[in-house]
Write a structure and sequence with these properties.
The complex is a heterotrimer of chains A (about 425), B (about 80) and C (about 375). Chain A is an alpha/beta fold and about 425 residues long. Chain A is built from 14 helices and 22 strands. The relative contact order of chain A is 0.15. Chain B has about 80 residues and is mainly beta. In chain B, a hairpin with a 2-residue loop joins strand 1 and strand 2. Classes of the chains: A alpha/beta (about 425), B mainly beta (about 80), C alpha/beta (about 375). Chains in contact: A-B, A-C, B-C.
Chain lengths: ~425, ~80, ~375
């Protein structure tokens, strides 16, 4: 099965939705695909219990004129087309223009106890709660860094969790200065005020981070390093995330240049979001972490550009640049404390797929040599967790992207459908 | 109240709301989603398809990411822990 | 200005599994050894290889070298890092014609002292229920094994280092009259052994070498899905034929429970990129023999290059027309199997002893003739 789109958008978060809707508004034949079953990405993830905010609902519902391709996962690139896995089988989708809106994932750092069941990312537990994860009545510790901690707390509280505390690694001065700067973005300031109101009564501590999680079969208590010493807090769930990193694997596989000026690469684009590869554009968090507003504007910008309407794209430059400055503000005020680099000891598992301990990596200075000797990064997550963490900890950068960019059925790589259970029985 | 979906996890019947993921169904029964290669129990970490800690067997197919898979009626889920 | 060169009894260039084995064997005899490797140890063809220890019987010389090496490999059976797994090799016959041909191979292997047995269809399916129905039978070589080549290479290098061998993490820039110059202009003095595989022409352009690209795919863990290294009996036609591109059914159970799927051969592909078309061809071949593979999760695909000489045999011996220059390279797809025997043979030649097997078929001088 081969399908062609004038504009194919990868990722159905705010950037991808805006790109698809905008390109379709110019009459282009548009496909929008995402590995998730519903559009919305992470920030607008479908919630089984609560309706989305109105603007999110509008964006998610307004897919008029767009082919919505749910549970489509890009696994490899072929000439001007993408090999895609779906639950039904394999598809080859070709495109005139491509918009990469692959968003970001959470930065998760190793610490003793982080492999215990019940320890999740902060955005991770938020995503699970929206899927229906039983959090009602559970005691949750939220820790890590950035405004996402508050958003996660809000979702969890709404789902009936008892949020024991929010522990932000940035110090109080930085967080206060960040809050003061929000006046330049009134919508954000308003949002933050609403959040604070809803989270009133939940301790929000600064200069604090999780040192260790304890428990037998699952997390039971955590040691938290605070400016006033180490506290031990009992909990049922620990949600800890250190901000976001761009998802650049698809861009890398397509041959798009990445910007390596920060620890974690981002897709390099020109002012109007063209990557180094012709007809390939990128928008939103994959081009650098800056939040929802940037994603929506850049999505629209890339949608105009991919559909050939450069003037309409150009008109969005000023608001985009203004919102991008928020990303710099975030990075500056929530820069990670260097003590976080020392949380993992020699016995802490760093590669959770292959169970490689930190101490086994002593002496290695590049990801490939370490992988060949220890299996670090050889597992199913393909180094997304450990490789990103090791880069953050200053050990070595993650090694390059190779197909499949996510594990995929062998049948998909062969361009075939999976075996039905009948076939499988005949074959065994 | 929205529709409910009935499935089994390690043989136990479980009911979840429509739209819930397989991960949610598993969490109602156990937090031990899989055994790691050095035999420690694991459960979802990222919640969004990146970490592969939530792999379970769904209708006989191994290594399915529970957080990426919508629960469906009659599904048989088996954990490895 | 001249800096006094460090002097060694042997300078091994290249720390793939062949170079590493040579450095290990030389240092074991008390020779003062230098190793030169700019990349990770075992990071080239060694890292890309399947790590199947297998005797191919279609060339008597290769068979002699393989048999010699396979015995030496037994000393690694208990080394944890080697991940030695004696899964045996099961050659699959699609029809009675192939099954009949297998009996000749069994006889040749037996003559070389390698245990090989015929399997009828029932015995085949008892051992490997995942095979497609309708196969005629096969040939089992029960003592063969698989290893993890890069860690073996690392282990060999560490062993050599523990005996005093020095590792230079540099590139060898040029061979000198009695030694080698590194890319930082360091001079090392002493007999040189070039074991740089596909990169051989950079230092020894007179010895023809082609890079033969291969693809491999590895899956997530499915313990017990298959139990033996599985190959089609037609494999040798792909491996030793001269077709510009070919694929063969060649599937391996890793000790982790992962399935490693090969194999492809391409002469004219010079870039290391994964070719979707080759991967498709290779996988379709494997599905034809093991249909259930289709539903398994692939984790990674990679490529590698086999160093291939015009006659398919490695160069093992003195560099023609040069003094104190030796070469051990060009093992095509059998470098892991034959590395240990190649190294013993090389050290015997360098020390002026008669090797345990006849070195004549591998003499690099055959190219000059």
């Amino acid at each position: 099965m081969r399908d062609h789109y004038d504009v194919l958008v990868i990722g159905a978060g705010p950037a991808g939705l805006a790109a698809a809707q905008t390109a379709a508004s110019h009459g282009a034949r548009v496909g929008l695909l995402d590995a998730q079953p519903r559009p919305g990405g992470q920030v607008w993830r479908h919630d089984v219990q609560h309706p989305l905010p109105r603007d999110a609902r509008n964006a998610v519902d307004d897919l008029h004129g767009v082919d919505w391709l749910a549970r489509h996962s890009v696994v490899a690139t072929e000439s001007s087309s993408l090999r895609v896995e779906t639950p039904q089988g394999s598809r080859l989708l070709s495109y005139g223009a491509l918009v990469i809106a692959t968003g970001a994932r959470e930065l998760l750092l190793p610490f003793p106890g982080w492999t215990l069941p019940g320890v999740t990312g902060a955005g991770g537990l938020q995503a699970l709660a929206k899927q229906g994860w039983p959090v009602a009545g559970r005691r949750v510790v939220i820790a890590g860094s950035g405004p996402l901690l508050l958003a996660a707390a809000d979702t969890l509280r709404k789902h009936g969790a008892q949020v024991v505390g929010i522990y932000e690694q940035a110090n109080a001065g930085n967080v206060r200065s960040f809050a003061a700067q929000l006046r330049h973005w009134p919508a954000r300031a308003w949002q933050a005020a609403g959040l604070r109101l809803r989270l009133a009564g939940i301790p929000y501590r600064f200069g604090s981070f999780v040192r260790k999680a304890h428990g037998d079969d699952c997390v039971q208590r955590v040691d938290i390093d605070t400016p006033h010493g180490v506290q031990t807090v009992a909990c049922d769930l620990l949600a800890v995330g250190y901000g976001l990193v761009p998802n650049t694997e698809l861009a890398a596989l397509l041959g798009c240049a990445l910007d390596h000026s920060d620890i974690h690469p981002r897709v390099q684009v020109d002012a109007l979001l063209r990557t180094s590869v012709a007809n390939v554009y990128a928008a939103g968090e994959s081009c650098g972490i800056a939040g929802l507003a940037v994603a929506r504007i850049e999505g629209a910008l890339a949608g105009h550009r991919a559909a050939g309407h450069v003037d309409a794209a150009r008109a969005l430059l000023a608001p985009r640049d203004r919102e991008r400055r928020f990303g710099a503000l975030l990075a500056r005020h929530f820069a990670l404390d260097s003590r976080l680099h020392k949380l993992a000891d020699d016995l802490t598992l760093v590669c959770r797929c292959e169970d490689v301990r930190m101490g086994e990596l002593t002496g290695f200075t590049d990801a490939r040599a370490a992988k060949l000797a220890t299996r670090c990064g050889m597992g199913a997550c393909q180094g997304r967790i450990c490789g990103t963490a090791l880069a953050e900890l200053g050990r070595f950068p993650r090694s390059g992207s190779r197909p499949p960019i996510f594990p995929a059925r062998l049948a998909t790589l062969a361009g075939l459908s999976p075996l039905s259970s009948d076939d499988a029985q005949r074959g065994s | 109240m929205s529709a409910r979906i009935r499935l089994t996890v390690n043989g136990h019947p479980v009911e979840v709301p429509a739209g819930a993921s397989v991960a949610v169904a598993v969490a109602h029964v156990t937090l031990r989603f899989r055994r790691s290669v050095s035999d420690t129990p694991r459960a979802p970490l990222c919640g969004m398809g990146v970490c592969f800690e939530c792999r379970v067997q769904v209708d006989g197919v191994a290594h399915v990411r529970a957080c990426m898979t919508p629960a469906s009626e009659g599904m048989q889920v088996v954990t490895d822990a | 200005m001249t800096v006094a060169a460090a002097t060694f009894d042997l300078i091994v260039i290249g720390a793939g599994i062949v170079g590493a084995a040579c450095a290990d064997a030389a240092s074991a005899e008390g020779m003062r050894v230098a190793m030169i490797e700019p990349g990770p140890i075992g990071g080239g063809a060694t890292a890309a290889a399947m790590g199947h220890l297998v005797a191919m019987d279609d060339d008597p010389a290769e068979l002699a070298l393989a048999r010699y090496s396979l015995r030496l490999w037994e000393s690694f059976a208990d080394l944890k890092e080697a991940e030695f797994s004696r899964c045996g090799t099961l050659w699959v016959a699609r029809n009675d014609h192939e099954l009949a041909a297998a009996s000749q191979r069994i006889a040749r292997l037996a003559a070389a002292g390698i245990d090989a047995r015929p399997l009828d269809a029932a015995a085949l399916y008892e051992r490997e229920p995942a095979l497609v129905p309708g196969l005629a039978g096969g040939m089992l070589v029960p003592r063969e094994a698989v290893v993890y080549p890069p860690r073996v290479a690392q282990n060999l290098v560490q062993r050599a280092q523990s005996r005093g061998a020095r590792l230079y993490a540099r590139r060898a820039q040029a061979l000198q009259r009695h030694g080698v110059r590194l890319d930082d202009d360091t001079l090392l003095s002493g007999p040189v052994l070039v074991a740089t595989g596909c990169a051989l022409p950079a230092l020894l352009p007179a010895l023809p070498m082609r890079a033969r690209k291969g693809h491999l795919v590895i899956t997530d863990r499915y313990p017990g899905f298959i139990r033996h290294q599985l190959l089609e009996l037609g494999y040798a036609d792909s491996a030793h034929g001269d077709a510009d591109s070919s694929v063969a059914f060649n599937v391996q159970p890793r000790p982790t429970g992962q399935i490693l799927i090969g194999s492809s051969r391409e002469f004219s592909a010079n870039d290391a990129d994964v070719s979707p078309a080759m991967v498709q061809r290779m996988l379709e071949r494997s599905f034809a023999f093991v249909p259930g593979l289709r539903n398994l999760q692939a984790l990674r695909v990679w490529t590698g290059f086999r160093p291939t000489t015009p006659d398919g045999r490695p160069y093992l011996g003195a560099v023609p027309g040069a003094l104190d220059q030796w070469v051990a390279a060009g093992h095509e797809g059998l470098g892991v199997t034959t590395a240990l025997g190649s190294a013993k043979l090389m050290v015997d030649l360098i020390q002026g002893r008669e090797p345990a097997i006849d070195p004549a078929p591998y003499a690099p001088s055959r190219m000059a003739a």
